[in-house]
């Protein structure tokens, strides 16, 4: 149960897929020389980790993009992939990509000086979208997508695709996400950064060993926002097969085994990416999120979690009124933020049914 909870939190654990160890995409890498970031800094080499499911057809018109969420790796969308689920790999070609800063795509931890560690540039959601656009057009020669489907920071990317490339895709799906990070979300993220960097071992990002106390403090703060208050009150963390499991054990495992092996600077980089997100900052919209959302041409399936503390339902309600072709379908779940990635059978059914129907509709 503890491993399951960690997966629900991180959505990167391979434990849930242990029954199919040979499935999943092969890790591949796309390199861009002299990649100019939105901040104006240039990465001599930008590396984008990606993998694929299924086969690209001759017309190259069966492609769906699955952009990753916070610190996630390639397999974070297997809750909608496979028999009986929304994405059939016998018909579709799925491209899964990993965000800058996750430790495998270009990140503070794996980039040489002079851009190593805290000197790595802040990467925006638009930087990620631009890099993946190059990947799709140069590696696969794909000039159009059926859809972009994204959870959390993946949803941020989906919205950005619809604004930056309005004619490049047929539709988007965003779960547990918003098109802009509003003030309260920035305050939350800054609190988590503050907890991490307060550790003396952090040394302004030039640490010799990972700041263990800071990472544990960061993990506890993050965990407090992950699930809904009612999820905790009803003790949905309990495991009937392990009646001895205690609240203290669950909390301690989040504290000490939060994102195994994650680098502190990488964690911060992706939080800064999250904080800076605003489709209104796309060129031509002058920071106006309402104008940017109003420009979206394609159908949008917008699925916030009713109990999400990261991307509150009210923020999503505010945004959906400006999207011309929106289907607004809040997820009725107590699981908070993870509800957008099928943490239980009920949420999985709700998500897969709505996404399946949406994809069928936009094909007509």
Short description:
The protein is α/β, with parallel strands linked by helices and 364 residues long.
Description:
- It is built from 11 helices and 8 strands.
- It is of the alpha/beta class.
- It has a single domain, classed as Rossmann fold, CATH 3.40.50.
- It has an 8-stranded mixed sheet with strand order 1-2-4-3-5-6-7-8, with helices on both faces.
- Helix 3 links the parallel strand 5 (147-151) and strand 6.
- The longest helix is centred in the last third of the chain and has 19 residues, at 345-363.
List keywords for this structure.
Rossmann fold, 11 helices, 8 strands, 364 residues
Oligomeric state of shown chains: single chain
Strand order of the largest sheet: 1-2-4-3-5-6-7-8
Structural domains: how many:
1
Report the uncertain regions.
Answer: 6-22
Question: CATH superfamily, please?
Answer: Alpha/Beta hydrolase fold, catalytic domain
Using only C-alpha atoms, the radius of gyration works out to 19 Å
Largest sheet: 8 strands, mixed
CATH architecture: 3-Layer(aba) Sandwich
Number of strands: 8
Residue-averaged pLDDT, rounded? 93
Question: In what range is the share of β-strand residues?
Answer: 5-15%
Which percent range fits the helix content? 25-40%
**What do we call the CATH topology?**
Rossmann fold
- Strand-pairing-aware structural class: alpha/beta
How far apart are the first and last residues' alpha carbons, in Å?
A: 42 Å
